[in-house]
Each structure stands twice: as C-alpha cells, then as structure tokens.
Amino acid sequence: MTATTTPQHTALHAEHEKLGASFTDFGGWDMPLKYASELAEHRAVREAAGLFDLSHMGEVWISGADAAVFLNTALVGNFAVTAVGKAKYSLICNEEGGIVDDLIVYRVAETRFLVVPNAGNAPVVAQLLTERAAGFDVEVTDASAETGLIAVQGPNSAAIVSGVVADDAERAAVADLAYYAWTAVTVGGIDVLLARTGYTGEDGFELFIPADRSPELWQLLIAAGEDNGLVPCGLAARDSLRLEAGMPLYGNELGLDTTPFTANLGGVVSFKKAEDFVGRAALEAAKEAGPRRVLVGLKGLGRRAGRGGYAVFAPSSGATDEAPREIGVITSGQPSPTLGYPVALAQLDVPYSEVGTTVDVDLRGKREPFEVVALPFYKRNA
C-alpha cells in the first residue's frame, strides 16, 4: 500500500467506531488495534471469551472435478486425504521453496474447497491459484470482498455460539464439532459456515458469512455473550495471544526467505503425495541439507522483553577479548500477560536450538539472558 492509498474497511468498521476502537493499518486494512485495554482483551480470551473481526482475511473457493489434485499441485499439503467437513493448515510456496503464505483449507464437498489466506497476501494467493489452475478442471473464485469473518475465542465460546444457533440439532452440532472441522448452522436467519479454528491457543470458532450480514451477526454475538464475559478484541490482543500459543505470523516468522523447515513446519509438507507441487524439488533439497537456523521459543530470564529484529548472541565466556557472536534474531517478542515473563520467537543457529540452552539478546545495547524453551509457551487445559 502506498502513502496515498486509503486503507480498506470491513463491513464492521462502523461497529468498531461505535465501540470506541483505536485503529491501525494492517495489510492495507483499517482494523481495530484495541477498544479500551489490550491487556483486558487478552485476559478475556484466556478466561472467558473475545470477539474478533477477521473480515480482512481472504476467501478463495476452489471448485471442480480436479479440485483436490489441483490443490495438491498448488500447495504443499495432501488434500486428497482431507475428509469433507475437515480443515487443514497448509502453505503456498514459490519454486525456490520460500513461503508465499500460510493458510487454512476447508473441504466443503468432494469437489469444493475454501482456501483462507492472510489479509495482506490474499490478492497474491488468489492470483497464484488462478495461474496454477491452468490445465485443471477447476474454477478459482476470489470471494474475499463478499465474505465476512467473525471469530469467537475463549473457554466460553462454545456456550456463546450454542446460544445463538437455530435449534437443538445445531446446538448438538456445535458441541460435537471437532478441532479443525466445520459445520453449517443458522444464526438469526444468517447462513453460517462455522469452523472450530482460531489463532489464540484457546477453544474457539470462526464464522464465515455474507459480508453484508456481518453487522447483524456481530450484534447478535455481542448480546449473546454479555453473560459469558465476551468482549470485543483488537489486533494487539490477537498478537499477544498467538505469540503465547507459539503460532507464526506471516512477515515475522514466515516469508519468502523462509522455508517450512526453518519455520518448524516441515510436517506440513507432504512428500508422499504423487503430485509435483510448486517448490517440491527445492524443498526436497532443503530437507536433505537441513536448515542452518530454526524457529525456537525463548523465555526471558529477566524482566525486559526482546522485540522483533533484536539480535541474539552466543553466551559470553567472560574473556575480555571475546567478540560477540551473533547466532540468530528475534522474530516476535513481548511480555506474556498470562505467564508473567517475557517470551519471544526467534530464528537461531541449529547448534543453539536445543531446549535448555541459554543465549543472550541485545536489548538496545545491553545483553540479557534468555532460555530456549519448548513451544507453545502457553497451552490451555483440555
């Protein structure tokens, strides 16, 4: 987006203004950063429930007899084995194996899938899918502008969603819905594709709807959540929640200079499928060679937090003539509201990536100790 480009608004922009949101530009969209307190919003999701506008995300439909084999060629995952009603996390890569975007793919029918890319990458992903569809019996439809997406996240999310669906059968469907699965429900006369997915580390749901019905659904959920501690949440809380859950953010942990193996996402890549997917040769070579750096979790042993871009160094031996040896960089970091200490994601040289290793982070000229820890930092009780 250039300096003269006006940020886009979701269909819920007026609702956010009514609630007094502070806005920020995110991927070319004017999105709520917070409403009152980002800390209170974060805690609401961990303890009760939060409501998020995700309508800036992309929605691309893939339909046709070759839908599964096409996606197996365009993306790194194996969608031929994904059952109808299920979802799969995946990546779209370039020929060099770099990550163009991470996304979720829902199998809606035998020959119909919904691909959900990140907001800033949605036009690029839609264009790449269209280009890669040549020669396949598929239709690629970018429905991003016509689709709204609202998320309810937190331990009370199931109770809230169950309280707004049409009848007992749909309430049972909500209760029985598995993680990374979807079902069709009706809320206030609005047809909803309801998915049990999210980006917070909590139980939660994402509701796909026609964009022009978004304000109705938002207001229904606000009213239904009043007795369950539901609060509207902005991108600041979303970021701190996903960081605690050890979830990557495109542009921070993921990018064109990152392969799935440096991002600890090698398991997402299916080399068993027959299709020669885009980037396969490069990724096979990268797997064989092994990554030089890998993504790790860091726990601050002091009170100061590391931030994205801060350099990571090997611990000093104490020798006066020792030169600092840079071994990595923080990709995301901040104090953890839930855990009470600083946490960070970082790309580290492999020899320093073992859990329990102590490293130093340059916090604006002063090196402070951090410890490599297992991810995620926070995991909810089942």
Automatic annotation (TrEMBL):
<dbReference type="InterPro" id="IPR013977">
    <property type="entry name" value="GcvT_C"/>
</dbReference>
<dbReference type="Pfam" id="PF08669">
    <property type="entry name" value="GCV_T_C"/>
</dbReference>
<protein>
    <recommendedName>
        <fullName>Aminomethyltransferase</fullName>
        <ecNumber>2.1.2.10</ecNumber>
    </recommendedName>
</protein>
<dbReference type="GO" id="GO:0005960">
    <property type="term" value="C:glycine cleavage complex"/>
</dbReference>
<dbReference type="InterPro" id="IPR022903">
    <property type="entry name" value="GcvT_bac"/>
</dbReference>
<comment type="function">
    <text>The glycine cleavage system catalyzes the degradation of glycine.</text>
</comment>
<dbReference type="InterPro" id="IPR029043">
    <property type="entry name" value="GcvT/YgfZ_C"/>
</dbReference>
<keyword id="KW-0808">Transferase</keyword>
<comment type="similarity">
    <text>Belongs to the GcvT family.</text>
</comment>
<dbReference type="GO" id="GO:0005829">
    <property type="term" value="C:cytosol"/>
</dbReference>
<keyword id="KW-0032">Aminotransferase</keyword>
<dbReference type="InterPro" id="IPR006223">
    <property type="entry name" value="GcvT"/>
</dbReference>
<dbReference type="InterPro" id="IPR028896">
    <property type="entry name" value="GcvT/YgfZ/DmdA"/>
</dbReference>
<feature type="binding site">
    <location>
        <position position="206"/>
    </location>
    <ligand>
        <name>substrate</name>
    </ligand>
</feature>
<dbReference type="GO" id="GO:0008483">
    <property type="term" value="F:transaminase activity"/>
</dbReference>
<dbReference type="InterPro" id="IPR006222">
    <property type="entry name" value="GCVT_N"/>
</dbReference>
<feature type="domain" description="GCVT N-terminal">
    <location>
        <begin position="12"/>
        <end position="273"/>
    </location>
</feature>
<dbReference type="GO" id="GO:0019464">
    <property type="term" value="P:glycine decarboxylation via glycine cleavage system"/>
</dbReference>
<comment type="subunit">
    <text>The glycine cleavage system is composed of four proteins: P, T, L and H.</text>
</comment>
<dbReference type="InterPro" id="IPR027266">
    <property type="entry name" value="TrmE/GcvT-like"/>
</dbReference>
<feature type="domain" description="Aminomethyltransferase C-terminal">
    <location>
        <begin position="293"/>
        <end position="379"/>
    </location>
</feature>
<dbReference type="Pfam" id="PF01571">
    <property type="entry name" value="GCV_T"/>
</dbReference>
<dbReference type="GO" id="GO:0004047">
    <property type="term" value="F:aminomethyltransferase activity"/>
</dbReference>
